[in-house]
Amino acid sequence: MAYWAIATRKCESPPMKITPVLNPNQREFLEDELLYREKLEILAEHNTISTDLFVRKFEDIDDPILLDKHDSFYHTTKSLLVLFQIMGVMPIHRNPQKPQMPRTGYSWTSKQVFWAIFVFSVQTTVVVMVLRERVNTFLNDSDRRFDEAIYNVIFISLLFTNFLLPVASWRHGPQVAIFKNMWTNYQLKFLKVTGSPIVFPNLYPLTNRLANSFSKLISAHLGFVFLFVGREYCDQFVTILLTAMLNGFCSLWYINCTAFGTASRALSASLEMTLMSDKPAKKLTEYRHLWVDLSHMMQQLGRAYSNMYGMYCLVVFFTTIIATYGSLSEIMDHGATYKEVGLFVIVFYCMSLLYIICNEAHYATQSVGLDFQTKLLNVDLTVVDSATQKEVEMFLMAITKNPPIMNLDGYANINRELITSNVSFMATYLVVLLQFKITEQRNYTLREG
């Protein structure tokens, strides 16, 4: 006897059905399959060719020359990418124009990776020399002032970021190549669907200025190191190099988030024009697929740079705590002087970097997600046909099921909440450290008394 009959006789409730959890690609495939099945049923019942149900078209293999021609994002940000390749930070490469070959690739045997290993070896040699001297000075010099010791700790913590470069950047090189290829394919697909390309008007001069300023600064200090080999020049070179890397990572995140906002606004403008036309259901299907691809690219951004920006946030967090504690301790010991200005500048610099990253991610997420939802919710469904109503509902469901979230591979979501959570954690640690400081001062006063 079946279980259901036995359960009914025993007055038992049947077991709960477990709904499978699908990833975005599986969910998209299932929706297309259901629509295709429904379309076949309508054709069989009414013996007609026309239908109001539209499914995703099979994509043709695009010509690599055509992909290069319309890859505005790559040509716009090429100068900053080349600078990162020279610095050995991001050793991805551009593949030859061959059919069925991704335009951007990553290989551990490429010349870009070998160059990155060479640059990393030379840079690590200089960093180890400077690090050894700084550690010996920190351990052996007991008469050094407290503010100088704080500067030394901050400098040593920045030096350790050099050793994390292969793990933070090179390890996720294939994911970065996937992200770049997604942008390349998306721009040509956007052009085919909307009839107009995506234009990034402000990114080209921005990336050129950033690349020129970073390269001139690094080359100038490198020349001083070769001409005047000494501790102060090596320290300055390492400081400038690491600072340029931090600024470069922040600039790269800003450029990617700005590009998402630009693509979202262009898609939104085309969607608005399409909604004004007669029976826009078929176009809405293509726009929905464009939006899903854009959301997947935002998720891929977090996966591609998860280690890099995870380490980045940790460095900013640690440096801010140490600099804030050092400045407050000096004020408690000797009063407010000009010595604390440098520490406050470091705190302001680190918090500015964190704010730019979180704020730009917030605006990109809002532009891709909330703005599209608002535009679709404002559509008057009473004046459109049934097919358009169905497509608007499926568009809203796609936005709900595929939220455009920048997640660092499960470690953290990059948004404004990350700023408040970091500030709260910093305040907690600072209170604990200052309690130790006050207790030490009180014990010292009692001993002196």
From TrEMBL:
Location(s) in or outside the cell: Cell membrane
Topology term for the membrane: Multi-pass membrane protein
Keywords: Cell membrane, Membrane, Receptor, Transducer, Transmembrane, Transmembrane helix
Top-level taxon of origin: Eukaryota
InterPro entries: 7TM_chemorcpt
GO BP: any one term: signal transduction
Transmembrane segments: 73-92, 113-131, 151-170, 237-255, 309-328, 340-357
Main localization, broad class: membrane
Keyword Cell membrane part of the UniProt annotation: yes
GO CC annotation, single: dendrite
Pfam families named among the record's database cross-references: 7tm_7
Gene Ontology molecular function, alphabetical: olfactory receptor activity
Record PANTHER family: GUSTATORY AND ODORANT RECEPTOR 21A, INVERTEBRATE GUSTATORY RECEPTOR
Described purpose of this protein according to its UniProt entry: Gustatory receptor which mediates acceptance or avoidance behavior, depending on its substrates.
Family recorded in the similarity comment: Belongs to the insect chemoreceptor superfamily. Gustatory receptor (GR) family.
Protein's name according to its UniProt entry: Gustatory receptor
Originating species: Anastrepha ludens
